[in-house]
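Why predict the complex rather than its parts? Because the way molecules touch one another can change local conformation, and only a joint prediction can capture that. The input here totals 253 residues.
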Amino acid sequence: MDFTLHVWRQGTPGSKGDFETYQAKNVAPSMSFLDMLDLVNEELTRDGGDPIAFEHDCREGICGSCGMMVNGMAHGPEDLVTVCQLHMRSFSDGDELWIEPWRADAFPVMRDLVVDRNAFDRIIESGGYISVRTGSAPDANAVPVPKPDADKAFDAAACIGCGACVAACPNASAMLFTAAKAGHLSYLPQGQPERYERAIQMVHQHDEEGFGNCTNHGACQEACPKGISVDYISRLNRDVLRARLAGVAFDST
Ligand code: SF4
Ligand code: FES
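Output of the joint prediction:
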């Protein structure tokens, strides 16, 4: 298969970027999207050019490192896959592909397709943890958790922090990510003591980072490779409301 690629190239953060056109030739349908970029990079390097910078690690849809817009869609056209698990058989021979980094003020472009997602780490640092003493690891099933709650916690914990939800959202909101990270704790007994402080702290940090508000478009849920539901956003909003009514205040220390 052959493709014409229009790839966003940007040398440094804040510099002016633009699309460059490349030909990807003799691409096997079984190759992943990242394998295809590797192929283009090999040729670029051989010709003395600058390889296209993109993030990757596991290439198995687990780590959340990879991510880019392909023809305006976060992680490309397939549902529930990261771009490392997107295969070239999903496209037609001769297709033109427009490849861009995530676009959001809170995710500044570092180089080409690589963005700085440290804002996500700071949201987790602000409250996405448990600091109460839970003792040593209990025996399996010693802490009873209703099955529906365990399932909800597990589904939220599937978030890999890729950032596709932000890239897909017209407001560049990170509420799906924040809600998933708060949600996987709020469904478990160990997460209860700090549940409402956590909601206030994480949403405050979300706003501080410059992510936009959620206005219920649902594009995040559609783009999420892990199928995280917007129901978690409703739950987080309810927790924030309950916290405010109970007088829980933001703690800046
Ligand atoms: S909620 Fe989904 S799209 Fe957003 S960071 Fe987590 S896995 Fe990625
Ligand atoms: S490289 Fe790990 S999820 Fe894509």
